[in-house]
Amino acid sequence: MPVASSASVPTQQMIALIGAGPSGLAGARNLQKLGIPFQGFEAYSDVGGLWNIDNPRSTVYESAHLISSKRTTEFTEFPMPEGTADYPGHRELCRYFSDFADHFDLRRHYRFGVRVLKVEPVSERPDTLWRVSIDAGEGRIETAEYKGVIIANGTLAEPNMPRFEGQFDGELLHTSAYKHARQFTGKRVLIVGAGNSGCDIAVDAVHYAQSVDISVRRGYYFVPKYVFGKPADTLGGKRPLPAWLKQKVDSTVLKWFTGDPTRFGFPKPEYKMYESHPVVNSLILHHLGHGDIHVKPDIARFEGRTVHFKDGTQQDYDMVLAATGYTLHYPFIAREHLNWQGMAPQLYLNIFAPRYQRLAMLGMIEASGIGWQGRYEQAELVARYFKALDEQKPQARALQAAMTGPAPDMSGGYKYLKLERMAYYVHKDTYRAAVRQAAAALA
Q1: In this structure, are residues 151 and 18 in contact, taking their beta carbons and an 8 Å threshold?
Q2: pLDDT digit string (tens) for 386-428?
Q3: For residues 336 and 105, is the Cβ–Cβ distance under 8 A?
C-alpha cells in the first residue's frame, strides 16, 4: 500500500522517524510497506549514517570494513550485489544503503540537513501525541505534533572518553577522530583498548608509526575472519548449541587457529567466550607475533609525554588514541521517557518504551552476528504494532500486556560482562526468535 504524500497528511497522523542510517532506513521501509504515514529527519545531507564517511558525525575511518560477512549482515529483501567482497569496506556499504534508499524510493520521506532538537510527550496518556522540535537550518526552529516517534539515530556516534590521571602533552584523541593511518606517521603511538576498532587501528598504525603499543585491562577472545577458508560467521550447524557447549566447542576451535593470546602479553580472559563481544581480526596476532605491536597493561597516569602503567613500567609516546567505544546518546529526549536505568534504557525487546504506545527505538542492540536484518526485523515488529494499534486489533493489546510484565531473558544462557557497551547486548538467536514471534502474532 503506498504511503500518502506527507503534504496531504497532517503531522498528527504521522510517525516521526529520526535517522537515515541502516536502522532508520529499515524503519522507513517497513512503515512504507504497511502504508503508515511518516516523516523522516536526518541531520546529514544523505543516507548511510556512520557508514557515510563524509557525514561529520560518522565515526568510520578509511580502512573500516565489516567484521561480520556480507551474507550474515545484509537486508534479506535487498542482497548485496554479486561480486561484493566478503567483508566490504565503508564505501561499498555507503553505496549499498544509497541503492537501498533508491530502490524503495525512501529519500522522498526524509528531510535532510535537519537536526532534531527536542522530542516530548504532549500529555501523560499512553497514546499521547509527540511534540518534535527541529533545527531546519539558518536559525529556523520548527515544531509540530506527531502521532508517534521512532528513534533510530545509532549507537556509535558519541565518544566514550575515559578520564586519565595527570596531563598528557602529546596528542590525546578518541578513535572517533581517527580517519586515516597517515595521522600516525613517525609517531610513537599508544592505543588504549583492544576491541574491534582498537585492533583494526593498531594494524593500520604499524605501516606508518615509529612504534605501536596497545594498552589493555582485560583479556580478549580473538576470532579470525576466515576459518577453513570461509568467513567465520558462516560456519556452524543449523541448530544452535546450548551456551555451555558452544563456548566449549568454539573456544577449542579458536585455539587451533589463534593459539593462546597470553603468549603476546594479553591477560587471560576472566570470563568465558561470548560473555563479551569477541574481537574479529585476522591480523592483530600476526603483527604481535612479528613484534610490530606490543601489549601494555592498564594506564596509571600521564606525566608530560610519559605514560605510567599500573605494573610500574613507563614509556614515552607522541600520541595516545582511546579506542574506548561509544556511549548511548539521545540528547533530544528526557531519559525518563526511555525508562533509562543504569547504563542504558530498559525497553521491551530493546525497542518499546513501556509508558507509551508509540515511542520506539531501532538499533539499540548489540549481538554477535545480529546483522542489519536483525534491525530490519525490529522495524517490522514496530510497523506491525503501530498498524495494529491504528486498527484497534486485540493483538496490539496482547503485546501491550506483555510489555508491562517481566522482561524476557534475551541472554541465551550467557553471563554477559557488566560493561556499558554490554548493557544492551543480547544473544542473536534468542533475540531474533522473540522479535519474529512477536511480529508474527501481529501479522
Answers
A1: yes
A2: 999 999 999 999 999 999 888 899 999 999 988 888 999 999 9
A3: no
Burial of 177 (C-beta count, 10 Å sphere; 0-12/13-18/19+):
middle
Q: Hey, what's the cell of 384?
A: 506491525
Selection from 345, 323, 344, 331 nearest residue 43 by Cα? 331
Confidence (pLDDT) at 249: 84
Confidence (pTM)? 0.95
How far apart CA 381 and CA 376 sit, in angstroms, is 9
For the four alpha carbons of 162, 164, 167 and 172, in that order, the dihedral sign comes to: negative
Q: In the structure grid, which three cell numbers stand for residue 14, read together?
A: 504521522
Query: Sheet containing 38-42: which strands, arranged edge to edge?
Result: 110-112, 38-42, 15-18, 148-151, 359-361
Phi/psi of residue 429, each to 5°? -65, -40
Q: Residue 430 CB: number of other CB atoms within 10 A?
A: 19
- Cell match 536559525: residue? 139
Spatial distance between the Cα atoms of 210 and 228, rounded to a whole number of angstroms: 35
Q: Pairing relation of β-strands 293-296 and 211-215?
A: parallel
CB contact at 8 A, 389 and 398: no
Chain segment 237-265, per-residue pLDDT in tens: 667 788 888 888 888 888 887 888 899 99
Query: CA nearest 403: which of 365, 334, 356?
Result: 356
Decide: 343 and 423 in contact? Cβ < 8 Å: yes
Separation in Å, CA 130 to CA 83, 126, 151, 354: 44, 11, 12, 15
- Taking the CA atoms of 172, 174, 180 and 181 in sequence, report the sign of the dihedral they define: positive
